[in-house]
Amino acid sequence: MKHEATLSALIPILALGVLTDGRAQTQPRVIVRPADTREALVNPAMGWVFHHYDNNIVRYGLDLEPSDTVDDFPGASVIYLRLAWSYLEPEEGKFNWAIVDTPAQRWIDKGFQVAFRFTCAESDPKQPYATPKWVRDAGAKGYPFTPRKGIDENGPMWEPKYDDPVFLEKLDRFLAAAAARYDGNPNVAFIDVGSFGVWGEGHTAATTRLPYDARTVKIHLDLYKEHFRKTLLAANDDFSNQGRGLEILHHARELGMTLRDDSVLVNCGDKAYHHAYVSDIFWPHLPVVLEMEHYGHSVSRGCWEDGSLFLQAIEDYHAAYATVHWYPREFYRKNRKLVDAINLRLGYRLQLLEASWPAELNRDQPLTVGYRWRNAGVAPCYPGGHPAITLKDAKGGIVGVFVDESFDVRVLPVGPPGKSLAVGRQEKESSQADRPLISYTLPPEPIFKPGAYEVFISVGDRTGTPRIALPLAGNDGHRRYRLGKIVVR
Fold first, then answer.
1. pTM value?
2. Over the stretch 310-331, which tens digit does the pLDDT of each residue have?
3. Domain segments of the chain: what residues?
4. Which of 4, 8, 207, 319 is deepest in the core (most CB within 10 A)?
5. Are the CB atoms for 259 and 273 separated by under 8 Å?
C-alpha cells in the first residue's frame, strides 16, 4: 500500500517491501524523497575564493574591517593571499609571516581556508622589486623594465632571469621556509606556483616580454613540488603560452598539480577563455580553480555583460573553485542571481533523491537501508565520503550509527544540469549503477535498546563523522539531516 503525500522538503511514504534475506514476510518501509533546499553549500575542495591581497597589499581586503569576513556572501570558503616575495622576506633569512598570518586567522576563525601565491615579478611601479632587491644584490641576473613596454635600461622595475642559478638558489630557500610553515596545514586549500612570470601567471607580457622555454618552467614546477609534498599545488594555464605548448601542463599534472585559469572575461565573447579543453586532464581527479578578470575592469570593457559567460566557463572547466577578483560585497550586490545560479553548480552538490528504511523493526531483524544519490555539481566530490544513518532518541542523543563503507560518493558522476546519473541502493535496481539495499545488524542490548527513534542521514568518514554539507532540511547543526522516524521493538 502507499499513501499520497503533499509536496514538501520531505515526502514520507509507506510501502511494502520484501526482506533482503529472502523471507516471505513483508515489511512496511518508509520512503522519503527530499527536495533540494537550493542553499549555498560550504564544503571541502570547493567554493568561492576572495582576494585579500592581489599583487599588492592594498587590494582587495584592506577596505574590510578586521572583523568583517563578508559572511553575507553565500558559498565562500577560501581567502586568497597573493603578494610579492619581497614582502615576506625583506632581508635574507628574515621573514615577515605576520603579513599573511594576520588576515588568514581572521578568516580561519570563521571556518575559511587560505590559499597563497608568492610572486617574483609585478607591474606596479610602486613595488619595483617583487623579487627582493637583496637577491639582485647577491648576484642574480635580471632585467630592468618599464611596465608593458619591455626591457628598458632606465626602467623603474626589475625582473629576475628565471633560470639564473643565484635566483633559483635564493628562491629554493624561500620555498623551503614557506613549506616548513604551510605544507600539509589543513587550513591551506592550495598554493599556486607563482614564481614564474608577471603576477605569477607564467608570462612576461607586462614586464620584460622575454620568452622562456619549457625547460625553465619545469624547473619552477619541480622546485615547488620538491618542497610542497602534501598541500595541493596549482599550475597556471598560461604556463603553456609563448610557444611552450601543453607539455608544461601535462608535466604539472604528472606532478600531481591542478589547473588554474586566471582572468576569465579579460576579453569578450568567444575570447573570454581559451583553455577549457585542457581541464579534462585535471578535473576528473583534482579541483580546478577559475579566476574571473578584475570584475570592474571586465565591466568597463563591456565583456562582463550579465556574467553568464563566467557560469559557462565554470561548466566547461568543471571548476571547483571560483575566484571573486574584486571587492566581494560589491560583486555580490550586483550579481546575486548569478551567484545563486553558480552555487547550484560550482564544485559538487550531493542530492539525496530518495531514502528508505523499515517503519518498524524487531531487534532480531536487520536494518535495511536504501537511497539514491545524484551529484548535481560540475565536479566530483574530491574528498569522497560514505553515507551514514544515525538514530537519535527524543533528547537528541545518538543511539546508533550505521556507515555504508562500501559506497563512496566520490564515484557519483557529473553531467549537464539535472542530467547526471543517479546511483544508489534500491530493492529493484533501475540501472546498472544501482546496488542492493544495505543491511545492518543492530548492536546488542543493553547498548541498543528498543524505542522510537529519529532517522538522520549524513556523508562523512568511515566512522560516521559527518564531513559533507548536503542541500537538505533538518540539519542538526553537525551536518546530519533528519529524514523521519523508526520504531524498534
1. 0.93
2. 999 999 999 999 999 999 999 9
3. 12-37+361-488, 47-343
4. 319
5. no
